[in-house]
Each structure stands twice: as C-alpha cells, then as structure tokens.
Amino acid sequence: MTPSRTLGSTGPATYPLGLGCMGMSDMYGPPDEREGVATIHAALDAGVTLLDTGDFYGMGANELLIRDALRGRRREDVLLSVKFGAFRDADGGWHGNDGRPEAVANYLAYSLQRLGVDHVDVYRPARLDPNVPIEETVGAVAEEVRKGRVRHIGLSEVSAETLRKAHAVHPIVDLQIEYSLLSRGPEAEILPTAKELGVGVTAYGVLGRGLLSGHWNPNRETTQADFRTHSPRFQGDNLSKNLALVESLRAVAETKGATVAQLAIAWTLSRGENVVPLVGARTRPRLAEALGALDVHLTEADLTEIESAVPSTEVAGTRYPEQMLAHMDSEH
Hints:
The chain is an alpha/beta fold. It has a single domain (5-331), classed as TIM Barrel. It has 11 helices and 12 strands. The longest helix has 20 residues, at 236-255. It starts with a strand and ends in a 7-residue tail after the last helix. This is Aldo/keto reductase.
C-alpha cells in the first residue's frame, strides 16, 4: 500500500515527500533539462505525486520543463503546486511581489498555458504583498477555485496572523515554509497555528540548501547564478561552523545506517502527519537517496540525539540575506 499524507484537513492526499522542482531551472547554477525531466519521471514512477514550482522559476522555464515531463502521464496522478507573484528581471533580480486581485487571473492564465493543463491543484502567492490585504489576494484565488481553474489554496512564508486572516476567507490547505534542522523558527508560532487551523505544511529547504545533503564540498566554486553565493550560511566562518554540525549529524546517521540527507529528511517527516517535506533533488541519484528517508524510522531517543548534534542555537548565519528577510512576513 502506497503511504500518503493529507495537505491539511481539506486538501488532497499526497505521497509523504513532494518534489521541489525549482533547482532544475533556477537558483543553483546551470540547469540540465534532460536530467530534470528524467528526475521527474523517476519521482512519479516511485509514487511521488506532488510537484512544486513557481511561475518565476527560470522565468517560466520550470513550468515548461514540468509540461514536457508530464506528456503521456495521467493528469489525475499529479498534484501541481504553483507559486505566483514575484517580480524579477532578465538578470535574475528580485523586485517585490504582486498580490493584486487583477494580477491573480493574469498569472494563472500564463501558468495554465505553460503547464499545458486546465487547472492547478494548489495555487499560492509566493510572498505576502505588503500593499495588498491577504484577504483580497486569497479572495481572488477563491474566485478561480469557483471557476474550476484552481482546486485548493495555499500560502508561502506568511506569519501566523496572516495565515489566520487568509483561512477566514477560504480554507488554506497548506503553508509552504522553510523548515529543517537548520531553520526551526516556524516552531514557535507558525506551525502550532497551522495545526490548530487544520492547515498542512509543505516544508522546503529540508536539506538546508545543500548543507545537510552530506555532499557539500567547502572548496566548490559557486557562480552568481547560484543562490548560495549570497546566503549568509555559506559565507566564511559561518560555513565552517555549519559543516561541523553536519559532521556531528553524520555520526548519528551512521549509527542508523542512513546518510546525512536521509536523516535530515526523516527528522522533518517526524514533525507531524501534517508535514510534507519537499525534496529539491535535481538528479535521479539524489532523488533515490532522498526517497530512502522513508525507510528511516526514528525513536524519541534518536530525535534527541539528532537535535543535540544540530542545536538550533548553534546554526551560523541567517537563512536569507537580511535585506530579503526584512520583506518576509513569516519573519515578523
């Protein structure tokens, strides 16, 4: 029997791990489209159902990649989760977010065309637009639900207060937020609020942008196109301190017969039945390793040992540059 979890109390059932497709087209250096398609195929063949993307990943290239991968596949076997609203430029820069109601229909129309589908399963603003009440943005997405072009509404990187406001307008099936052994901030207020409201959590960054992969080479060269070039956790002494934590985690992983990545993913899976980790595997070998996390069973003693190996207070550097964090509702 295929294992499953549910996106919140009102959302669809999904495989316990989702596939985050961003890295196949953007943020982590030059893409390999052929391997991206092959990785999506391997994920679907293994039982994965949830594919997560954004209309601004690779300026639409990621949606086109997913369209190519889904040719010949049964649409009903796939859950497409799409973020919208980020302003970017031809150099890959970021310039805020657009949550205006009139923009919702526009963004969605382009996504449906690029994906080659007639509906999106979960549609969500990528970030809160500070100039538009979340009630108005969610109300516009709810109109697309009524029209049948969206099945469910999600949110991304919002505070507990914003989640409550949105949920009062229309049921929110899941909140997408960065959550891992290296990023435990949501535990204070956001995750308890989601659980109270019956909102699921799709956790991204579960491998800390590669730090918790167990494969990070501290001497590797990154380009300006790689997000990690600008990430505080990958800079100077911060990187050295964080990699030391990874080595502590590796020691625990070896006692469980698991890899560092598998242990980190298994820890996220242990956070609750309402949590679905998104693994950002760009290649088939990394995907296979990630799926192996489902076979790692953790006891309470294991969880204590894991959290002792990677204390949240010892993580060096913020998850995004300070200027980006200042505009993230989830950080307020």
